[in-house]
Amino acid sequence: MLKCLIASPHLMSPTSLVGGPLPTHSRVGREQQRYGIDGERLVAGCIPVRVSSSSSSSHNISILLITSRGGKGYVFPKGGWESDESCPEAAARETVEEAGVRGKLEDAPVGRYEFYSGKAERVHSAHKGRCIAHMFAMHVEEELSSWPESPARKRIWCSVPEAIQKCRHEWMKDAIRTWIKSIDREDLLCQPASDARM
What we know:
Layout: E1 2-4, E2 41-51, E3 61-67, E4 74-75, E5 78-80, H1 87-99, E6 101-106, E7 111-116, H2 120-123, E8 130-143, E9 155-159, H3 160-166, H4 170-182
Parallel strand pairs: 2-8
Antiparallel strand pairs: 1-6, 2-3, 2-5, 3-4, 3-9, 6-8, 7-8
Helix pairs in contact: 3-4
Cofactor: Mg(2+)
GO molecular function, one term: metal ion binding
Protein name: Nudix hydrolase domain-containing protein
């Protein structure tokens, strides 16, 4: 079952096609940031996916990646899970803010992934940069031409093997593999990496 989620209304403008009003800017600051029991920063994000209706296509699943803010490779949209939202709401909000796409989340999360933020201010914090990412698969229904972080990020649709190859972080590659196995499409992991932009 899929859920359609929207971001918090105070960050929105009045018009949209899917999932409520369009965001006008990204949330900033750590005032509402959630932390885990051991002090780790809790984040939420999505693997944005598009499934082709063409049964003749061997590459019928595409995955959206975005450039990191520093331009050091491709990543998934993710960010802080805040105290005024559920984990799926945070994942959907971060995805529209960073990648400019909206859609329906699968009910079951892909998984939880531990990573360490390399940002200096986090490395010197009490949690030493440790983060736990709660990742969801989002079936994209709307691709915005302009979104809060569009000036700082580029996005690219990839085949499954290409997304695994391009992902900057190993934990993100693991998240793709976990999701692909959950939908019983391990065959996609064996295909050659080729561009899947549609």
